[in-house]
Design a protein that fits this description.
Blueprint (H helix, E strand, L loop, with lengths): L2 E3 L9 H10 L1 E7 L10 H20 L4 E6 L9 H10 L9 E8 L5 H17 L2 E5 L6 H13 L9 E4 L6 H6 L3 E5 L8 H11 L4 E4 L11 H11 L4 H16 L19
Parallel strand pairs: 1-2, 2-3, 3-4, 4-5, 5-6, 6-7, 7-8
Helix pairs in contact: 3-4, 7-8
The structure holds zinc ion (ZN).
Length: about 280
Amino acid sequence: MYYIDPHVHMVSRVTDDYERMARMGCVAVSEPAFWAGFDRGSVDGFRDYFRQLTEFEPNRAKQYGLQHYCWLCINAKEAENVSLSREVIALIPEFLDRPNVLGLGEIGLNKNTKNECTVFEEHLQLAADRGELVLVHTPHLQDKYKGTRMILDMLRGHSDIKAEHVLIDHAEEHTVRHVFDAGFWCGLTLYPVTKCTPARAADIIEMYGAERILVNSAADWGPSNPDAVPNFVAEMRRRGHPEETIRQVVYDNPLEFFRQSKRFRFTPPGGAASPEG
Ligand SMILES: [Zn+2]
C-alpha cells in the first residue's frame, strides 16, 4: 500500500532509510523543523538548517522517488531563548515561499513554560498573518495532558486561524478527544519507547474512527523507527480492517490536510499532478 509519513526528521536519517521507505510504499514525507540535540548558537544555524530542509533534503528524497515537504520554526526546547526565537521567526518569511514548505511547525510546548507560550503565540501570529498551516508538537509523558490543554486554549484565542488548518501531533488516548472536540486534525506518533505503538494507534482509531487522524513515525536521531507506518498498516490488517480505512489514515488524510497549503503540489505515484495540487 502506498503511504505518506507526515512527520519524520529525515536530516537525522541515512540515505538507506529513504531507499527502504520507498520500497515499503512511502511516496512522500513531511519534515517538521525540530531540535538538533543541542541548542543552536545563532540565527545563522537556523538559516543553514532551513536551507537543508528546502534544498538538500528534497533532492536526496527525489533520488528514491519520494516527495519531500517541510515545516519551519524554532522548536519549543530552544524557545527558552526568546530573543533568538524572535530572530528565527523574523527569518522564516524568507523561506516561506520555497516550493516544499507546507507551513509552520513543529511549534508547541515542551515543559509548558511562560517563554515557550510566548514563542508559540508569536509563531501563531505569523501563521495567521500569512494564512499558513500549523503543525503542533505536544509535550511528552507527564507534561502532555496539561500542555495539550494549554495549546488548545491558545489556539482557541486565534479566531484568525482555521481549525482545519491545524494538526495537533503526538496525541495519545487521554488527549485525542480534546483535539477532535476543538475541530483540529490529530496526529499519532508511533515510537518504540514513548508515545504510541501501532497497536495503541489501532485501538484509538477503533474508538474514534478514521476521520481527521494521521499516523507518523517521527523518526529522528533518537530511538525511533522509519518502518512505523508500515507496521501500523500490518497491525490494522491483522485486525481485519478494510483496506479503504487503512488507506484513509496513511494516505488520503495526509493528502487532504496538506492540500490546504497553497504550495502543495503532489504527484500521485505513476500519475500526473492532480489539478487541485
Ligand atoms: Zn518531531
